[in-house]
Amino acid sequence: MGYFGYKPYASVASRRANALKAVVKANKKGTHYAPIAPYTGAIAKTFWGKAWCSNLEQYSDYESRLPRGRSYVRNGSVIDLQISTGSVRALVMGSSLYEVDITIQALPEPRWKAVCADCANSVASLIELLQGKLSKPVMERICAPTTGLFPSPKELKFECSCPDWAGMCKHVAAVFYGVGARMDQQPELLFKLRHVNALDLVAQASVAQPSASKTKSSKVMDASDLGDVFGLDMDLGVDTGVDTAPAKPKTTQVKAPVKVAAKAKTAAKAAPKPIAKKTVAKKAVKQRV
User: Fold this and answer.
1) Whether pTM exceeds 0.90
2) Tell me: the pLDDT tens digits for 17-72?
3) What whole-number distance in Å separates Cα of residue 173 and Cα of residue 100?
4) Would strands 156-160 and 97-104 be described as parallel, antiparallel, or unpaired?
5) Domain map (residue ranges) of the chain
């Protein structure tokens, strides 16, 4: 036991080894953990993951603990991360294995209705929304710090089983960053955490837009890149004036030789055979003799 009841510092290598042992042990017991695998570089790479982390980093209340949290999530210390409606439960390997519980308040209904109304005529498909493929003003509206989807500090409650009495310990910070990393693969989790349905945004647009507009938007998504985007133009890569006329000459060019060949073959059959002419000539010679 270290000073003031704290356990001795555990190195990154020892935390990784202990985390792996804990995962293997849980799997043998039939408990399947959902860890954040160790990695280097940016914690989040897609629109929603980046937006979640950016929202987290703008609050000065968490400033002192966030760097340690980033380090913990990158080295694989978050060995289990479970996200459900309005809550996050996680296991983080530090000097020991600690339990983290986070509760996020539901988005107030008037606030959600205001977001849907402001984004009407702009969200044509759920895929566009989850991939962040909307205009910059729309995404800024959805991600606004106090009026958008992301929670403020007063809407968050969290606790950790570690002995650290800080408002946000490094284990909690690691879990928050783990949520951002998880949103890279499951961006719909943001809506789940705020108790709202992403389809409400699409439904709002469906009422306001004609069916033709929705069809064009669907074609945009079929042709667009579904990789990492951060505010791409919805009309990127779309040509609404495609000329299909060249298809007709191709059909004519292919069929014409076939018709000519067929006519030539028919003419050949109809023509008198050379053998028949020779036979007639032989008969004529006999008659003269």
Assistant:
1) no
2) 777 788 778 777 888 889 998 888 899 999 999 999 999 998 877 888 899 899 99
3) 10
4) antiparallel
5) 3-109+143-196
